[in-house]
Amino acid sequence: MLKSHELRGIFVPIVTPFEANGELDLESFGTFAQHLITEGIHGLVVNGTTGESPAIESNEVLMLLAAARKAMESTRRIPIVLGTGTNSTASTLKRTEQAGLHGADAALVVVPYYNRPSQQGIIEHFRSLADVGLPVILYDIPHRTGVVLELDTVRTIMEMDHMIGLKDSTGSIKLVTELSRIGSKPVLCGDDELFYASLCCGAQGGMLASANVATNRFVRLYQHQMEDQTQEARHMFDDLLPLIRLLFTEPNPAPLKWLLAQQQQIKSDELRLPMTRISSQLQQQLASIQVR
Do the domain assignments include residue 289? Predict the structure, then answer.
């Protein structure tokens, strides 16, 4: 199981490839997972938003988890974090329990979305996961959940024994700065464009959709920053920024999937509705950018 002090580095929320008929493409998933691992990542996130989690069935999640574990047999063992959060506490409990039983090292649990619970309701939602026995990472992404967490709420949740850290997708460096100041558990940046700034403010790494491509460059950027080679890290981030911005020009993960299909890392850029393929204009822009 993943410990708090191990929650650092580049965790990649892997895309979920599909066949032309919409079924899981487990072959592409497995080979791509192996590729990411050999590029030096520190953790793999399965069934995150970048993996189109809203369109993945419960039995498919377990198939993806098994494929990720199998991919490590011929590479190296890294932590697997499984997205298990929903806006139902009972459903989240069941999914998180299943994740632990099937070999996940931690669960990524988003703040309940759509029903917009109170701050106390959110606290109780995360407190209820204590008995499951699987380490949990809080995922704060207010532009998707419709709820802004107060600092005291985040601190209360992070102090729970089963909580090991935070994925910060708040769109600001304010939260990571404050949590670092008070010495909280690790924070991973979830806003790709803020990755370098978050590292400078105390983040211990990132869960970055963009790191599905140019993976080793993100790994080396992190390593430079951790070794106080800040100028090199900043230059690497500046070089990556045009790519990062293009990848979020249209809804994630469609741009990623198109680019990965072009690189033959996955067989197809197929998505499940309501997600659709990217525009021809963005295809041209992505084709013109240098991705190493």
Answer: no
